[in-house]
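worker-3 :: picked Thiol:disulfide oxidoreductase
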Amino acid sequence: MIDLHYWPTPNGHKITLLLEELGLPYAIKPVNIGKGEQFAPDFLAIAPNNRMPAIVDHAPEGGGAPITVFESGAILLYLAEKTGRFISPDRRRRVETLEWLFWQMGGLGPMAGQNHHFSVYAPEKIPYAIKRYVDETNRLYGVLDRRLADRDFVAGDYSIADMAAYPWTVSHERQGQNLDDFPNIKRWFDAIRDRPATIAAYAKGETVNRPAVMSEEDKRVLFGQTAASTRR
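worker-3 :: tokens ->
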């Protein structure tokens, strides 16, 4: 059994996408990030960056004590290596998968996240910041669209690289992006959206009691963090 410390955000969805594809038994442990549950001492013990998702694998390969993993990219890689699925054993294909996994972790996720923040959540609408991140998101969509021009998925076969990127494109309209401008992404997006595991993963997210509208207090908790936050 795997404990998944989770909230239905793009980074959380990455892990349920993979777990549903793998068919591994897992239990969702909600971490209400708007209420500050990511700062609880028990959670910080497994996720020192006070961010979800994180997992506890109670049946690691080779036995022994449970293994904890934080950071969504590390979790995807850990589970793929544990099961031998969704990352190729071929050296060149494996490198491609890792390149695009890290591309998402270092590019698409952070830039789309800042896009969401300044376009949707920021109390002050700053035109320069909004344009900066909408434009950079657009550039990254262009990179992904070119990559998908001659292949179904980013590293050939469906992989953890696709599962990392897909949740960050679900909110494309809120990011100021039109998938009609990116036909290769649109084809890729539709193919992943219609997979049974994707449908099941997003249905799991609906079972978590996430408020429809983020309160001002939730925003304060999420966006007002400093080093002192982890010492609460």
